[in-house]
Amino acid sequence: MATKIIMPQGGQHVEEGRVAKWLKAEGDTVKKGEPVCEVETEKVVLEVESPADGVLLKIVVPAGEKVAVFATIGIVGAAGEQVDLSKLGPEEKEEKGVDISEIRKRLAAKEAGGDAGVKASGRAKKLAAEKGVDLSTVQGSGPGGRIVEEDVLRAAEEMAKAPEEVMVGKVRISPVAKKMAEDKGLEVAAIQGTGPMGRIMKEDVLRAIEEKGKKKEPVPGALKQVKETIPIRGVRQVIFDRMHQSLQQSAQLTLTMEVNAAELGRFRKILVDSLKDRNIKISYNAILVKIIARALEEHPKMNSSVVKDEIWLWESVNVGVAVDAEQGLIVPVVRDANKKDLIAIQKDIDDKVERAKNKKLVPDDLQGGTFTLTGLGFLDIEAFTPILNPPEVGILGVGKIIEKPVVENGQITVGQRMMLSLTFDHRIIDGADGARFLKTIKSYIETPYLMV
Amino acid sequence: MSEASYDVIVLGGGAGGVPTAIRASQLGGRVAVVESDQLGGLCMNRACVPFGHMLAASNILGSLALGKEMGLGFSDVKKDFAALMKRQNELISFMRQGVKSQLNKKKVEILQGKGKITGKGKLEVNGKTYAYKNLILACGAKWVKPDFPGSDTEGVITTDELLAQEKLPKKILLYGNSPWLISVAQFLNRYGSAVTLAVQEKDLLAAESKVIRSRLAAALKNQGLTVWAGAEMTGVKREKDGLHCSLKVKDRQEALVVESVLSLRRGAALEGLGIESVGWNKGGDYLPVNNRMETGLDGIYAIGDVSSPETRHYSHQASSGGIVAAENAMGLQSTYDSKNLCRVLFTRPQVACVGLTGKEAKEAGYEVVEGAAPLSMNPLGMILTQTEGIVEVVADKKYGEVLGIHFIGKGASEMAGVGVLALQMEATLEDLARASFPHPTLNESLADAARECLGRSIFLP
């Protein structure tokens, strides 16, 4: 007897599939369960197995063609059997689909206190009683929708599975297990519970933690071998979260501008020389903090944050300075930098860097910044794309001061040049505004005496 | 030839075997219980129930002092042991009938006789062979002769003989390592016997927390009980005037003359079980099992006293483990967590401890926080003059996981149920601290002990 090969659904909501390749030719002998062709849906590639022993009589849908799911794509039958496609009956729609209207009717009747009108075999009734299956909820597959033993067994099986489905959004978990899972950042819904009613217990979480650890082990035969795994914790965890959050939550644009740093160098030298006796060494960072603070006063939007649907302009001008410390990147904040003189700013930075080395920084030292200064010049970097330190909307990256030929008034001379890289939140600051801010910075760098 | 075949045969109809058989039957199995003596086992016939009854009477006597404080007057308090025993035997007989009808109602067949395994899947009872798919050994423990010189002297008895007596001994020595000796000693003391309690452990309840131990020791002392800890019996001899006992107690020698010596030494009832016929050759004092109650022998489970060392002979362990064994035998996946076993003593004051002591928790690597709330600070405790009682909570600091709860005092055995539930459900300190226990009850102290762990006790000074 001929049997149809059906295009499988291969995923929820999939409506059509394409026959990718026939693994058997017409006339080939096939065994039940043996793959006969490969099909693709938008979600998966599947092998379709022969539904019966016999011969592949006909390929209805050739390779490369698309058809609706559940359509006939081929026929298996006895060798030499004549097949009339039209006599194989209409395409079966969702073969696993269930008509629940009958069940609804019965449940309604039952709730109303009436006879549920269940038709079931004696054996099915007995089995239902044993397994605790409510017959009024069972779809019958016997003649006239009569419930037979097999239907009860299927219902019992589904009942056993039911808790998982019912528990969507509400996972049974012990208080200790919950705390532990939260602490370890485990998705509780993914943990297999072994307590009563599938409750997730401490043991289960411990097992999940162990398995999570195991997954990092090299998979035999994989192309990559793991040398070491380093947990992301502490400072690294904070940086990890902040940086990812930063890129997710804002639209970052970076502008670069080359500036003449010759005067900045001279300015610094004068300060360093004149403060020698007082044991204070003014750094480029301190001068740049002062310059930024001054520029921020002139461009208040660069000194702001986005809070819900509002832009909050900050009164305080607190400039963070990114420092490459032993434990990773830290950003001590110089508070009210616009109100402090250079010496105060330098002392502030020195104090915080010193305390960072001794691990004596307090959270307040690192919080409340409104703008950040970062530099990689000490590592010979000229220009880069800094990433915003949320909720700030601006960060200025400064590169190495490079001696190079420049054309000034038609003459090639040796210049001291430095690249500025300004990243800002383009959601609230236009490119031209950003450029204007950079121009202000530039003017102070090239003529530091303007700050006075 | 097989007489009949069963999905589950439960060997032993005691505190463990009965619920085991009922559970297996509920799951659709054909089930039989084999009992060689009386249904109900040791627990119902000779231990928990009779002593529970006797201690209830003893506790009423103990309450008279409080009653007097409250202005109640009693004259001529009679202590009629024979009357007590009559009520007791009627009660037990009634309960035994109840067990029998329960088993009948739940379609469990009762096979009277001693069961012996004769090969894989075969059990012989009274010369007939029965086939089983699963065998659950619930045959309990037996008296073991104490190991001191003269232990077979007449007058060296167990509680079985004590219960059979019509009159209580005037002078008695209780000797051994069983914690149950303490409650028996208290009962006898209250009923007028002169009691000496000699325990081999270096301290009464050496494994429990120091607070529990010292409070119990102080209570026993107040009650006029002589307690010798770290005792070793060196000889018992019968003379005209009674049993002459000599003991080494720590560094000194003690001698006393008593009417009886009571000893409670028990070991798993493995003899004559025929377990060698299915390949058991490991020896040992009991049959160790995993958390599914499997012995490792094909289709054979063991529960209760036969599967535990003497320190864990508790009926509630037998029944909880039995239900798990029955479920596994019938194809479910079930486990029993013995770490939540409640160590209960029906002493006066009662002691009931579940989970770890602070010391054990530290050794297990937890960062331990401990809190305690004395019942003397509890309103009902004050009403009842509960100066001896206290609730201790041991927890892990990191997750607030409750690791141990210890009670001593009136009602400790009832309060411990809350503790068992808390540990079983893996409650945290916050859960206990926020449990709104009814007022006035002693259990309010449990919440306060948990709050003390969190540094915010409400009622402690």
Describe this structure in words.
The complex is a heterodimer of chains A (452) and B (461). Chain A is of the alpha+beta class and 452 residues long. Chain A has four domains: 3-88, RNA polymerase II/Efflux pump adaptor protein, barrel-sandwich hybrid domain (OB fold (Dihydrolipoamide Acetyltransferase, E2P), Beta Barrel); 113-166, E3-binding domain (Dihydrolipoamide Transferase); 179-214, Dihydrolipoamide Transferase; 236-451, 2-Layer Sandwich (Chloramphenicol Acetyltransferase). Chain A has helices at 101-111, 122-131, 149-166, 175-184, 202-215, 234-249, 262-274, 284-298, 342-357, 363-366, 431-446, and strands spanning 3-6, 16-22, 29-30, 35-40, 45-49, 54-59, 66-68, 72-77, 252-260, 304-307, 310-313, 319-321, 323-325, 328-330, 333-334, 371-375, 394-398, 402-408, 411-425. In chain A, the strands form five sheets. In chain A, strands 9, 12, 15, 16, 17, 18 and 19 form a seven-stranded mixed beta sheet that branches. In chain A, a hairpin with a 2-residue loop joins strand 18 (402-408) and strand 19. In chain A, helix 2 (122-131) packs parallel to helix 3 (149-166), helix 4 (175-184) packs parallel to helix 5 (202-215) and helix 8 (284-298) packs across helix 9. Chain A is elongated. The model of chain A is unreliable at 90-99 and 162-169 (pLDDT under 50). By secondary structure, chain B is α/β, with parallel strands linked by helices. Chain B has three domains: 2-143 and 267-339, FAD/NAD(P)-binding domain, CATH 3.50.50.60; 156-264, 3-Layer(bba) Sandwich (FAD/NAD(P)-binding domain), CATH 3.50.50; 349-453, 2-Layer Sandwich (Enolase-like, domain 1), CATH 3.30.390. Chain B has 13 helices and 22 strands. Chain B has helices at residues 17-26, 41-46, 48-69, 81-105, 159-164, 180-190, 210-222, 315-329, 358-363, 379-383, 412-424, 429-433, 444-453; strands at 2-11, 31-35, 108-112, 115-119, 122-125, 128-137, 141-143, 156-157, 171-176, 194-199, 226-229, 231-239, 242-249, 252-258, 260-263, 266-268, 300-302, 342-345, 350-355, 368-374, 390-396, 402-409. In chain B, the strands form five sheets. In chain B, strands 1, 2, 3, 4, 5, 6 and 17 form a seven-stranded mixed beta sheet that branches. A five-stranded parallel beta sheet of chain B has the order 8-15-9-10-11. Chain B has a five-stranded antiparallel beta sheet with strand order 18-19-22-21-20, sandwiched between helices. In chain B, strand 21 (390-396) and strand 22 (402-409) form a beta hairpin. In chain B, helix 3 (48-69) crosses helix 4 and helix 3 (48-69) crosses helix 6. The longest helix of chain B has 25 residues, at 81-105. Chain B is globular, with a radius of gyration of 23 Å. Chain B starts with a strand and ends in an 8-residue tail after the last helix.
